[in-house]
Amino acid sequence: MKAASREALATSQTRLDEILGGDNNVATAAQAGLDIFEVVDVLDADRELRVAFTDIAAPSEARKSLAETLFGSKISGGALRIIQEAAAAQWSTPKDFVKGLVSLGRRALLRGAEAQGQLGQVEDELFRLSQILDREGELTQLLSDRTADSARKRGLLANVLYGKVTMFTEALVLQAISRPEQNPIDDVAALADSAADLQGRTIARVTAAGELNEGQQAVLAEKLGKIYGRAMSIHSEVDTSLLGGMRIRVGDEVIDGSTAGKIARLRAQMA
């Protein structure tokens, strides 16, 4: 997104938090998120509407009125107010406006999980699912196929998720699969990052040679928190091929303290 769109998204996110934070209502936030995605479906199919909502020549009140006229009787009041606030902002392109609404829909669902007291659980479920996708190459390949029917992909994944995750995790993942940005693994991992960010934390993805207990994870979170100046959320998995130690990834930065990594570096130095 360009600067204007980033500013519009930040403003819209703040307004969403104000709109949904008033009564801390789980159902209100969940319905708002689902309704916003319904609006995105409409805009995806109508270029003229996308352009109309981002026409800076039209007064902001006119764009808000357009949202009322088109969607007022079809979506919840919370969703309508959020869309109107987004429509009143200045977006760089119609495409950015739609991407912004997708982000707002996801944020609404995450706020619903927060109101339900399940935001930490959703974060963990999203991380675990990204691991499953990383291991299940055939499933990930199908979900990555942009020529495959979106409904079929959602149905396949829904069967995998049904009864195993919260409704918020399921809704978020199904929407991400419908609107891929990178690939299923990275898209689901990005949702986990968003869940952690709403809790004021950054995810540290830890691959260790052996299972880390709760105490070890707590110590590691404290140490990393001091390094990065932010509360950390530890998500770990086991890879015995590391031989010992661990490999830590925070954002794009990797800290490789594994035995396998040390051996590889030693070999490189001796070559």
Could you explain the architecture of this structure?
This protein is α+β, with helices and mostly antiparallel strands and 271 residues long. Among the domains are: 1-116; 201-270, no CATH class. 67% of the residues lie in helices and 9% in strands. It is built from 13 helices and four strands. The protein has helices spanning 3-21, 26-44, 47-53, 60-71, 77-88, 94-115, 119-135, 137-144, 150-161, 167-178, 184-198, 214-228, 259-270, and strands at 201-208, 231-238, 246-250, 253-256. A four-stranded mixed β-sheet has the order 2-1-3-4, sandwiched between helices. Strand 1 (201-208), helix 12 (214-228) and strand 2 (231-238) form a beta-alpha-beta unit. The radius of gyration is 21 Å and the shape is elongated. The termini are far apart. The mean pLDDT is 90.
Show unreliable segments.
none
Query: Count of DSSP E strands?
Result: 4
Structural Rg:
21 Å
Strand content: 5-15%
Mean pLDDT: 90
* Main β sheet profile: 4 strands, mixed
SSE run: HHHHHHHHHHHEHEEEH
Family: Belongs to the ATPase delta chain family.
Pfam family, one: OSCP
Membrane topology: Peripheral membrane protein
Organism: Corynebacterium pseudogenitalium ATCC 33035
Q: How are the elements arranged and paired?
A:
Layout: H1 3-21, H2 26-44, H3 47-53, H4 60-71, H5 77-88, H6 94-115, H7 119-135, H8 137-144, H9 150-161, H10 167-178, H11 184-198, E1 201-208, H12 214-228, E2 231-238, E3 246-250, E4 253-256, H13 259-270
Parallel strand pairs: 1-2
Antiparallel strand pairs: 1-3, 3-4
GO cellular component, one term: proton-transporting ATP synthase complex
Subcellular location: Cell membrane; Membrane
Family: Belongs to the ATPase delta chain family.
